[in-house]
């Protein structure tokens, strides 16, 4: 994979087109097999929606990358690429099994940790501190955290697919600028798959990607974030991937802490995500999802700037992004989303008195 613009455009176009074509096939197959996400509980949709969208994403990505490699073989890294694709495929299979059989969260967690350790042994690793044990822990936390963050983001029509596409485009631009042609090719292919799937997944969604697609996307984005390289290893290798993924990170942190404070299990589903809280505040679903897109696009632009400036300026910009994310999370945390929330009862009482 070389750095010619038309080659990147071809990869993006082929992956987008493949996913556009394969997603209706997945819709038909899931409907025929009865693999449907039924309404009820904490789910907002009113009628059954087919799962298995992840299959379309996986096949489209694998086919587009295989075509690109056959057309322009990379000068190095073929073995690593095969291993990463196999690990991502393994996570997708676990995710699909979870969609069909409702696996224990512990099973998913163990598989994610094993995949992270496998990346470390493939020499795909975070080397922030120089201490092996601590860097192994950071690598596992990053891979497991980002993989699960995208899985948790798959809670509203078009949200996870749109975020995956935006984050992948940000990685592509930075990698292409740095001359990391293989990373750029993988990122733009992933962006195309997510964008092609989004055509059928945006509100009102005709299909969901399920855990199979979300785990696949999250793992690959975590991998691509580790692979980004810069002259300044501290501000680049650490700050840029975090800023690119700041919205998934913020959402996961908000949900986890909110559930723990409310005495609920972090693994328990619910309408307590960033997107749900915006909808609960009166913002329509498409607008809420669009606002998350805008936030991630802004974060991607800042990540690009951080990758090009000196270390001191990079840390200042990083501090601005984190401060903004924390402030937004604190405001959204005030939105009552749990039935037994004191704030929720207070808001209901205030509305009742007002009417």
Write the layout of secondary structure elements.
Blueprint: H1 5-33, E1 36-37, E2 49-50, H2 53-71, H3 78-101, H4 105-121, H5 132-153, H6 159-177, H7 181-201, H8 210-227, H9 233-244, H10 246-261, H11 274-280, H12 285-306, H13 311-333, H14 342-354
Antiparallel strand pairs: 1-2
Helix pairs in contact: 1-2, 1-7, 2-3, 2-7, 2-8, 3-4, 3-8, 4-5, 5-6, 5-8, 5-10, 6-7, 6-8, 6-12, 7-8, 8-9, 9-12, 9-13, 10-13, 11-12, 12-13
Short description:
The model is unreliable at 343-355 (pLDDT under 50).
- Indicate the multimeric state: single chain
Approximately what portion of the residues adopt beta-strand conformation?
A: under 5%
Neighbour order of strands in the largest sheet = 1-2
Largest sheet: 2 strands, antiparallel
Overall SS class: mainly alpha
Terminal Cα span: 64 Å
Into how many domains do the coordinates divide? 1
Q: Work out the helicity level.
A: over 70%
SSE arrangement, N to C = HEEHHHHHHHHHHHHH
Which residues sit in consecutive blocks of at least 5 with pLDDT less than 50?
A: 343-355
**Can you give the mean pLDDT?**
87
């Amino acid at each position: 994979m070389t750095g010619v613009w038309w080659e990147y455009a071809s990869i993006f176009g082929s992956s987008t087109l493949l996913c556009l074509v394969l997603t209706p096939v997945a819709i038909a197959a899931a409907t025929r097999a009865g693999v449907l996400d039924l309404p009820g509980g904490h789910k907002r949709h009113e009628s059954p929606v087919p799962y298995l969208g992840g299959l379309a994403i996986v096949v489209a990505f694998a086919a587009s990358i295989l075509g690109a490699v056959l057309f322009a073989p990379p000068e190095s890294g073929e073995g690593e690429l095969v291993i990463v694709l196999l690990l991502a495929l393994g996570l997708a299979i676990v995710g699909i099994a979870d969609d069909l059989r409702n696996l224990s969260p512990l099973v998913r967690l163990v598989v994610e940790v094993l995949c992270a350790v496998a990346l470390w042994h493939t020499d795909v690793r975070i080397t922030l501190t120089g201490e092996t044990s601590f860097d192994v822990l950071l690598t596992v936390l990053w891979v497991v955290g980002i993989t699960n963050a995208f899985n948790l983001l798959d809670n509203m029509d078009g949200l996870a697919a749109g975020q995956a596409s935006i984050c992948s485009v940000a990685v592509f631009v930075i990698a292409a600028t740095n001359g990391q042609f293989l990373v750029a090719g993988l990122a733009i292919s992933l962006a195309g798959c997510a964008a092609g799937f989004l055509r059928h997944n945006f509100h009102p969604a005709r299909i969901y990607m399920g855990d199979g697609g979300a785990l696949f996307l999250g793992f690959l984005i975590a991998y691509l974030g580790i692979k980004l390289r810069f002259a300044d290893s501290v501000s680049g290798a650490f700050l840029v991937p975090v800023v690119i993924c700041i919205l998934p990170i913020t959402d996961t942190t908000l949900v986890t802490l909110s559930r723990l404070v409310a005495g609920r299990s972090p693994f328990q589903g619910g309408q307590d995500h960033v997107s749900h809280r915006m909808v609960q505040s009166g913002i329509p679903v498409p607008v809420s999802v669009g606002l998350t897109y805008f936030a991630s696009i802004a974060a991607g632009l800042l990540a690009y700037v951080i990758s090009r400036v000196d270390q001191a300026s990079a840390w200042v910009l990083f501090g601005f992004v984190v401060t903004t994310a924390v402030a937004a999370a604190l405001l959204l945390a005030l939105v009552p989303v749990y039935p037994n929330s004191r704030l929720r009862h207070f808001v209901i009482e205030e509305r009742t008195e007002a009417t």
